[in-house]
Amino acid sequence: MKNRRITLKDLAKDLNLSASTISRALDNHPAISESTKKLVKKKAEKLGFIPNSIASSFRTNKTKSIGIIVPRIDIHFHSLVISGIEDYAYKNEYNVTIFQSKDCLKREKEIVKILQNRMVDGVIACLSIETKKCDHFKKFEKLGVPLVFYDRVPTDFDANKIIINDFESAFTATEHLIASGCKRIGHIAGSQKTNIFKARLEGFKAALVKHNLPIQEDFILHTKNLGYEEGVTCANRFLELPELPDGIFCANDYTAVSLIQVFRKADIKIPQQVAIVGFSNYPISKIIEPHLTTINDCAFQMGESSAKLLIRQIEDKDDSVNSETITIRTELIVRESTKRA
């Protein structure tokens, strides 16, 4: 039996038992005696038997496999979400396979096709920045494959969603700047083609309106990807204005860190002259000097909740809910970048 995979039939022949008995023994079936289970497992280990997961999935109609589609793995938020998903999936004996869309709609559609052709029990996805219509995801429903979206979620069809309240979080961040004494407040915004960044901009504006502060359009700078270099560009544009904002809310931490570094080189004191708030609580927010006040978007919990909701649907076939929305609460973490004397 060298140089080939040991099969159930090989074990059955060697132990003079049926293949079905061998299979049940390896699966700890209650109908099989402990002595038989022990005998079978010992022989399987000795011969190097590896269970055929594909055959097993045909028998149980489950692959114990989840597909994950993320825009980019190298963004800390998504890596934390993946970690939360993987943690919960592992505890429930599910495997995960991760795909990156790289924020490209074409690539996202190709990944969806791959997952529809593979045997996965469920899919967790965050839409790419380019995605406007989500028809390519609708086939999962026809195939009976549960689907959960997180963070960037569709608006054109009902689906299970795990989100945060971006409007409320941005409102809280901006109101904190106002409470710190800021009167001229700016914002570095994400792509307004994406609902979460639209909501953050609207939350920012709503806080200013509530406190009777002006919305100055030259204080609102737009980016494509909220990258570090875009943050540097925005910082220099602020420096070119006749008057600097005395507070700035950034739609992510990368751009906020850019502001701190550029302003410090220009001898702008933070937070005395400009107080800065970021969004996401990336590790760099605790490294940069001064430490960055930010919104903790609870990415790990978002991943856990996504996996929990998906596996609940996989395991409970009577669970017909396919349009549940769970909102994860965020928190404002106050650090030195807004602590004025």
Structure, explained:
This protein is of the alpha/beta class and 341 residues long. It has 3 domains: 8-51, no CATH class; 64-164 and 299-329, Response regulator (Rossmann fold, 3-Layer(aba) Sandwich); 166-297 and 332-338, Response regulator (Rossmann fold, 3-Layer(aba) Sandwich). Helix content is 43%, strand content 15%. The protein contains 12 helices and 12 strands. The protein has helices spanning 8-15, 19-26, 34-47, 53-60, 76-91, 105-117, 139-143, 166-179, 195-210, 228-240, 253-265, 299-315; strands at 65-70, 95-100, 122-125, 147-150, 160-164, 185-189, 220-222, 247-250, 275-277, 294-296, 325-328, 331-333. The strands form 3 sheets. A 6-stranded parallel sheet has the order 2-1-3-4-5-11, sandwiched between helices. A 4-stranded parallel sheet has the order 7-6-8-9, with helices on both faces. The model has no long low-confidence stretch (mean pLDDT 90). Residues 6-60 form the HTH lacI-type domain. This is LacI family DNA-binding transcriptional regulator. One of its GO terms (molecular function) is transcription cis-regulatory region binding. Keywords: DNA-binding, Transcription, Transcription regulation.
Q: What is the percentage of strand-forming residues?
A: 5-15%
The top-level CATH class of the largest domain is Alpha Beta
* Inertia-based shape: elongated
What's the overall average pLDDT, rounded?
90
> How many separate domains make up the residues?
3
The proportion of residues forming helix, as a percent range, comes to 40-55%
Q: Which strands sit side by side, in order, in the main sheet? A: 2-1-3-4-5-11
Q: In the CATH hierarchy, what is the architecture of the largest domain at level 2? A: 3-Layer(aba) Sandwich
